[in-house]
Amino acid sequence: MKDANRMDLKPVIPFEPIKADKIPVGDHWIAQVKWDGVRVLTYFDGSNVQLFNRKLNERTLQFPELADIKRYCSASTVILDGEVIALEKGKPSFHNVMKRDRVRQPDKLPRAMRETPIIYMIFDILFFNGNWVVDLPLNQRQRILGETIKSHDDIQLIENFDDAHSLFDVVTAQDLEGIVCKDLTSKYGIKGKDRRWQKLKNYHDLIAVVGGVTYRGDIVNAVLLGLYDQEGRLWYIGHAGTGKLTMADWRDFTEYIKPLTIRERPFINKPERIKSGIWLKPTITVKIRFIEWTEGHTLRQPSIQSFVKIPPEECRLE
Where would you tag: which of 44, 52, 119, 152 has the fewest CB atoms within 10 A of its CB? Predict the structure, then answer.
């Protein structure tokens, strides 16, 4: 790309990895830990620093530690790409980093900074000393990063690993989110999302009871999930509308549940953010894939894998 004026650093939509089921093969591939946090790009035009997330919402207020860019970056102008994380018991906690991300009032920030310190995990560079570097291969961009970034307790360069399989085994054992495999010869695709970067997530599976549904028009678009406790009470644990069901599957399911609708909520707790749920007799069970349990005891990123023939009473809270 052409040289840019140092005062024209406009926020861009960052490059995204695609989901993959297999680790790519080849000497030009490296793997990195997929840190569970908030994607943040840092823009420094020579005088001002601004932070934006991947949806182009400004986050300079929420993460002021990164605004002192001369503390950790020697570039005269720069755009850095990375992940802001917050730890809990030594592991990244998406819940904790979202506490910081949700701060909107400056007077609440000092307490938030004390209670939830962050770490900026830097993994790419888009603009450097007056020039766009997105057309350089990743290995050259990483070399620039290594020469430009000074690590601190709260500023880290993400490490490359040649053995992606071993890294994924470690990530799985440590119950981290997953890995990202990257082609060292690849350019950085602004607003892009393709096979140059591939993410493999460390998912968990469980069997849950369907206690309700929501509709979009005349077709069910999500199922409300629950698990039983030792007293036989059904607890709502989240809703899922994505996964492996086709539109034909959703239509068939819509017809199947018509005789199962009931008036009373089967869950002991009231589902949050569900205003138009239709309750069902809890007889259907479904295999769900998810990332983790939240502190609110619901599933994060649940997706439907298949309906299964498991007795509902066997679907229990651990």
Answer: 152
